[in-house]
Amino acid sequence: MGIKSLTQTIKKFSPDAITHENLYKLSGKKVAVDASLIIYQQLLSNPKGFFYNNEGKITNHLTGLFYKIMNFITLDIELLFVFDGKPPDNKQACIQGRKNKSCEAKEKIDETTSKEDKYKLEKASTRVTKEMITDVKRLLHLMGVKYIHPQVGEGEAYASELCRMGVVDYVLTEDMDSLVYGCPKLIRNCVDKSINRKGVISIFHYDKIITELDLNHDKFIDFCILCGCDYCDPIPKIGNITALKLFQKHGTIEEIIKNTKYQFPENYLLTFQLAKDNFLLYYDKITMDMFQVFDSEMDQEGLKRFLIDEINMGEKRVLTTLLKINNIYKVE
Predict the structure, then answer these.
(1) What is the per-residue pLDDT across 34-78, written as a single tens digit (0 to 9) for each?
(2) What value does the mean pLDDT take over residues 306-330?
(3) What pLDDT, on a 0 to 100 scale, did the predictor assign at position 331?
(4) Neighbours of 37 (CB within 10 A)
(5) Count of structural domains, the chain
(6) What is the CATH number of the domain that holds 39?
(7) How far apart, in whole angstroms, are the C-alpha atoms of residue 57 and residue 35?
(8) Parallel, antiparallel or unpaired: strands 200-205 and 146-148
(9) 69-114 pLDDT, tens digit each
(10) Cβ neighbours of 28 (radius 10 Å)
């Protein structure tokens, strides 16, 4: 879910904290990638539906990632994929809710005759599997892209802290949770619909956000939790603008509960604190020595065989794309 309506809040109250740049301007920079989210994003991004190889395996995530990663590599942008480990216990309700929605969508697929509705339900029922993760790691190995896979914890949390530490310059994700972890610079697909140029990204600048919202890091976390997140459900009648005004007026969640008439659950303060603990779990507490970094050199021949023979991508498209690595094509 991320943080409910956080993007809209930033657009309204801190518009200068969002800049729009051509991706090539990040040349020479290091970018941590929220692996699980980008896999899911590529899995569902094709409006024409799912692609399958000769063995009947969905391949959208692999083909999408191949082209996306190549775009970064040819611009001399170094990627570090960060995978999710075991999620926190207080996210189980959120995870179970997603599983339930997936099961409900699966049950409705056979009941519809509309091709469009059937595809929508297939997308809603699709989950990232361990097999998909394994295949993505193989793709990264063949493309010479580094990755880490901690045993516990969420990928965006580690990626955000690595960016805060200066190990990487940006975090690539569509999940606004990263800002709550203190990510200094978050890259998303362009959020300004008036910009029609290809290759434009949006960068969210954390320091400007909290300055213009008149919050420090601690209160920004509190504000985001009150908006609603994966660890703590939103409160009826408290939207993002109301949540911001409440913190600006009362300062703490305890004072908000004490001095307002909103209906907070009996155990809300405990749930709220556990959520906050998650967002602070790795803040100033990790080093790169804690991770096994999987690194490799690009294996073009192995990559060709994998994409063409196993994923069943078109040979011409694969070879044409790989020509960019050898500087035969100039990247605009």
Answers:
(1) 999 999 999 888 777 788 899 999 999 999 999 999 999 999 999
(2) 85
(3) 43
(4) 20
(5) 1
(6) 3.40.50.1010
(7) 20
(8) unpaired
(9) 999 999 999 999 999 998 766 555 555 555 556 566 555 666 676 6
(10) 10
Query: Is residue 139 assigned to a domain?
Result: yes
**Residue 224 falls inside a structural domain:** no
DSSP structure class, residue 25: G
Specify the DSSP class assigned to residue 260.
S
CB contact set of 328 (below 8 Å; sequence gap of 6+): none
DSSP label at residue 135: H
Q: Is 283 helix (H, G, I), strand (E, B) or coil?
A: coil
Averaged pLDDT for residues 14-21: 97
309 DSSP assignment: I
CA 58 to the chain's CA centroid: 21
HEC-encoded secondary structure of 36-103: HHHHHHHHCCCCCCCCECCCCCECHHHHHHHHHHHHHHCCCCEEEEECCCECCHHHHHHHHHHHHHHH
* 197 occurs within a structural domain: yes
Neighbours of 217 (CB within 10 A): 15
pLDDT for 176-197, tens place per residue?
Answer: 999 999 999 999 999 999 998 8
Whose tokens are 């050199």? That residue is 297
Is residue 145 in some structural domain?
yes
Give the C-alpha distances (Å, rounded to integers) separating 96 from 54, 93, 100, 103, 325.
32, 5, 6, 10, 42
Distance, first Cα to last Cα, the chain: 35
> Which residue did the predictor score with more confidence, 44 or 228?
228
pLDDT of res. 329: 42
3-state secondary structure of 33: strand
Both tokens of residue 141?
A: 């190995």
Under DSSP, the state recorded for 287 is -
Q: What is this structure's pTM?
A: 0.89
Q: Which domain holds residue 138?
A: 14-213
The residue to which tokens 């978050």 are assigned: 186
Burial of 90 (0-12, 13-18, 19+ CB in 10 A): middle
Any idea which of 4-18, 53-67, 116-130, 302-316 has the lowest mean pLDDT?
116-130
